[in-house]
Amino acid sequence: MTYVIIAGFFAGISTLSYYFLVGSTDASSMLPYGQLVIIYLLMGDLMAEKDSPTVIEIQSLMSILFGVLLIGTTPIGFDFVALLIVLGPMNLSSAMLTYYQRKTKRYEIRPGLRVDALNMRVWSLLVLNSVMSLLMLPMMPANAWQMMAESVIPLFWIMVGSSVTAFLSIVMYIRALGKGSMAVVNSLSAISVVLGIPATLIGNLFIPGGFGDLGSDPFLWTLKILGIMLVMIGIVALQATDIRSLVLVKVKPMTRDLLPDLYDIKGVEKVAALAGGIDYILTIKSRNLAKTRTMILNKVQKVPGIDRIETLVVIREYR
Amino acid sequence: MTESIQSYILMEIEIGMTDHVVDQLRHIEQATRVAVTTGGYDIVVLLETKDLEELYEITVNRIHKISGIKETTTAVVEKMISV
Questions:
Q1: What span, in angstroms and rounded, lies between the C-alpha atoms of A48 and A25?
Q2: Global pTM?
């Protein structure tokens, strides 16, 4: 439960910075800015494992970082305030949010009982809203309450519209996850980063200025588009490189239940205890074959009670 | 939504028949994952069925009718933890 509260706290900070930025830059930059969190997560993972990064990770990292910097360009140079907010509170707290969400998902409240995803979302939304409101209190001008009361009615339909669209997009995302792998779905949704531009342009036709102020300098536009493409390629490259393997495990006689020990190893996606000639099957995933050995297989082989393992590397997978 | 019996079928395939077998396996709705792998087995399938009766039906009537499979080892999942 504490993890959920902490996760919600960070979600609050991240969303607040998001709203801050939305007010000052244009909509087409917001989507790519949010993707910077991948860099933090990646670096966090690398530091936790005390392992050296692979070339593809370094490449994607640089690609995303440079992309974000390019997007933040304005006629007078870099928009430092926006960039600082992106680098600091927004993405740092987004990274912490994801970290704590992961911890909650893998945490066992009691044997066999894990946290339900919907439950987790609802609780973190509650904490998110409380935290955001609390943090905003010192920043509100004196007549804030009056402004809020006056704007509730006209903005009501916009609120309903945005809630419905957010809801539909989450539902579609979950359905896509049901059909394909997480990596594929996340790479494809990276395309949404590119769609920010046409959406902003079309949106501004209907509601002038509603999607943020766009400069019309073609040089800046080229930089922006290049930046967005860099971010997108960085994300896709990262999601597309992974090696999955199935590890068949046989244990020695008189061995206790190894299921929780095996599941605790980072990189193990699924563990199944089987009836039949084999005792356990692990589904493992890592960035390349070398890391499969050092990060996962070495740890699996250290679990006491294992007699022999056979690793099957997946060369093609269908769902 | 999740079916209650899951089982892994590890198959050894005759030379050259892997693509054909994979195509046939993909038509089976209960085969949620079909993986071609390196190592002692050629294809690993994850089947999700309602009960053992359905598992029997799929293995005997659908899988064992696919040409090109040399040997299968079926392992029923007793317990699975996943992300």
A1: 34
A2: 0.72
